[in-house]
Specification:
Length: about 220
């Protein structure tokens, strides 16, 4: 079942990276996912990620996709290969601080707020480009800013989803022009089970899919 779902999704994705969202799933389900050959797993809560990581093979790449509180940063530094959900300068500074302490470079994406729902975290697109224009991001020696992430509004309105993803892509290019290490700045993480086809069409390099895999 999982194997069939993965096969179909991968065929649709082509070159786009599949980040398998394993949040709320049992260890058994994760083991089945692992057995399909999938190696990028994503969780939205720190404790759940660490607990699952401890019980599963160590060649899994773990990504964090949920809102991260600053007081939990030190728990996950060195344990995750990508944090998709960096949504404030304060959080970025804490990741730098803890990464420096542990002498590792942490890869992150900047979460951009493009959806209409108030509850979604993230930087306002224009403010983010302004931050880069004013060099607020240069002192991060132990953080590698790899790109951007966004979530579209949960809606059936395809035009709206397209507009929100396009805004993400435009912001990505706006930052890429300003960033010093622009060769590291390559990833656009957008698209979930309901909208990943649209996301891919508009230029996603990574999609985050959960329910469609386990359906
Ligand atoms: C849960 C989640 C996903 C996956 O959602 P599905 O609709 O199950 O594919 C993707 N991104 C984030 C940030 C999530 O929290």
């Amino acid at each position: 079942m999982i194997q069939q779902n993965i096969n179909r999704i991968k065929e649709e994705l082509g070159e786009t990276t599949l980040v398998a969202v394993s949040k709320f799933r049992t260890l058994e389900e994760l083991t089945n996912l692992y057995d399909t050959g999938q190696r990028i797993f994503a969780e939205n809560r720190v404790q759940e990620l660490l607990s699952k990581q401890n019980q599963l093979p160590n060649d899994i790449e773990w990504h964090l996709i949920g809102h991260l509180q600053t007081n939990k940063v030190k728990m996950i530094i060195g344990r995750v290969s990508l944090i998709h959900s960096v949504d404030s300068l304060k959080l970025l500074k804490e990741i730098q601080k803890q990464s420096l302490k542990q002498n590792v470079v942490t890869k992150i994406l900047l979460q951009i707020h493009v959806a209409q729902e108030d509850s979604k975290y993230g930087f306002v697109p224009n403010e983010l480009v302004d931050l880069f224009a004013t060099h607020s991001f240069t002192p991060f020696t132990h953080v590698q800013i790899c790109g951007v992430m966004s979530m579209a509004t949960l809606t059936q309105n395809t035009n709206q989803i397209e507009e929100e993803f396009q805004k993400t892509v435009d912001t990505f290019h706006g930052i890429k022009k300003l960033i010093t290490n622009s060769e590291d700045f390559t990833e656009i993480s957008m698209g979930m089970s309901g909208d990943y086809i649209i996301a891919k069409k508009l230029g996603a390099t990574m999609v985050r899919i959960g329910s469609k895999i386990f359906a």
